[in-house]
Amino acid sequence: MGLPPAGLGALWSLLFLMKILLCSSLCPCLDPALCEPVAETRDFEVFVFHVREKNWLLYDWTQITTVATFAEYEPDLMCFAHSKGVRYVLSGDVSLKDIVDPKIRTAWITEKLELAQSQFMDGFNLDIEQPVLKGSPEYYALTALVQETTEAFHREIPGSQVTFDVPWAPNCVAARCYNYTGIADLCDFLFVMSYDMPPQLFTEWVAGANSPYNETLTGYDQFINLGINPKKLVMGIPWYGYDYECLKLTKDNKCILFKESLLDSAAQQVPYSTIMKQLNSSLSGRLWDDFQKSPFFNYLVSQAAADLKQFCLQNAQHDPLLTGVSSSTNPFRPQKVCSFL
Q1: What is the full DSSP assignment across 119-176?
Q2: The whole model's pTM is what?
């Protein structure tokens, strides 16, 4: 037996109300208003990548504007960030060969958008660190990906933010010959990864700052010279470092590298927090590399092995971030260097 028209209307109203209540109950925050997207615009961005555990509790939330997560989704972090007026955004990448197909590209964007909506997030950070040849199908597909992702998020999540990670300079670094000016125009801003720069080549390869001061500034000049608005460039500074093998350590603390140390597979990342714990036990205290505008220090790991290490810190103009480490495994010939930032 069917329901009369009036009964059907009442049923649909009830179902609609239940849907609203169900959606409200999915909000993990004590205050449901915190599940609304952050719509505030900022003149200045402090963009943080969250990668693990609960260290977000130690952030200076008076300074941060956006947290992009590479870690597992944390409802508590979302609620807390929103309570501070800070955006909490997804991060991710996709195979550029796959998204040359417009249907696959649309499906990927839809999937990420729905995930962001289900988790009450505020946008997406595109971290596409893949080689691209200028004028290739992937070159145009990447530009289209940025445009379509930005349009979809802005349309479906009011006030949302879509950003794109770029290397420290736009001159085809790591074979990433992207459409930088087009991408900058199509997203909210570029996050410039001012780190992972190669060791220096003099007469030999020498370990040094992973984010050297002069090269960092040169990279921004190159982006601006392309016509990109400086307001669309956000500086990225690392909080980790790399370990490299060292052939010898000179009297002026230059660490000459084995050729094998130049391979990505030979470098081991070390967290900034781990490195800074060594500062108190250093032999030298804080020293200064005037060429790279970076501080560093030496310390002895063990008396038995005479294992000497050198830590280099990042620009004095910024917070002191780690940029280099060197060490030796015997008192006569240095064997290892670790180069950070």
Answers
A1: TT--EEEE-----B-TTSHHHHHHHHHHHHHHHHHHHHSTT-EEEEEEESSTTTGGGB
A2: 0.81
